[in-house]
Amino acid sequence: MKNFILASASPRRKEIFKQIGIDIKVVESSINESIRTDERPEQIAMSLAFQKAIDVSNKVDNSIIIAADTIVVKENEIIGKPKNKLDARKTLQSLSGQKHSVITGFALIDNNRLTKIVDYELTEVYFKDLDTIEIEAYLETYEYLDKAGSYAIQGKGSLLVEKINGCYFNVVGLPISKINDSLKKYFDISLI
């Protein structure tokens, strides 16, 4: 069986593979994650994932490289990772009682066969109406650190969410079911 390489330092993505029983090696990408504002959010997420996958594919041999990039979008505006607590507070206030989208672009590369696939998954997330006390209590968990959208749905951030429409694991950062479908279709490999 091929080696699987995760081109991401995200502990959440590695944990998803661990949950399904896949031992995956992590090789971090060293790309500069700059975005072009003239592209659609889906294009940005897929482009960043592809750049990560290409970068890592040049560092390893005979492997399937899996890379991903997750962005949060509200009304066509990308909401990045918060710079600080004040920024996280503003983000959570803007998401309160609203719908936003979580888009994860992913790239799969078999660097032995030179097969490359790039795709994305979109999940709609509906936040509850949050009051100031709830937002402040959530900020005290520090889960917002290093999280696009300033929350972690797999932790206490789940208490902020009313419902989702789409893949839960996509919101965590890796649409594992769609990735498995792509691996089966294009690489003749199943994670099951």
TrEMBL record:
Catalytic activity reported: dTTP + H2O = dTMP + diphosphate + H(+); UTP + H2O = UMP + diphosphate + H(+)
GO BP terms: nucleotide metabolic process
Uppermost EC category: hydrolase
Cofactor: a divalent metal cation
Domain of life: Bacteria
Keyword list, A-Z: Cytoplasm, Hydrolase, Nucleotide metabolism
Site (Important for substrate specificity): 12, 70, 154
Main localization, broad class: cytoplasm
Any one GO CC term of the record: cytoplasm
Keyword Hydrolase: yes
GO MF annotation list: dTTP diphosphatase activity; UTP diphosphatase activity
Family matches, as SUPFAM superfamilies: ITPase-like (SSF52972)
Active site: 69 (proton acceptor)
Localisation: Cytoplasm
Pfam families: Maf
InterPro entries xref list: ITPase-like_fam, Maf-like
The protein's Enzyme Commission number: 3.6.1.9
Function: Nucleoside triphosphate pyrophosphatase that hydrolyzes dTTP and UTP. May have a dual role in cell division arrest and in preventing the incorporation of modified nucleotides into cellular nucleic acids.
Family: Belongs to the Maf family. YhdE subfamily.
HAMAP family tied to this protein: Maf
NCBIfam families, per database record: maf
Protein name: dTTP/UTP pyrophosphatase
Lineage: Bacteria, Bacillati, Bacillota, Tissierellia, Tissierellales
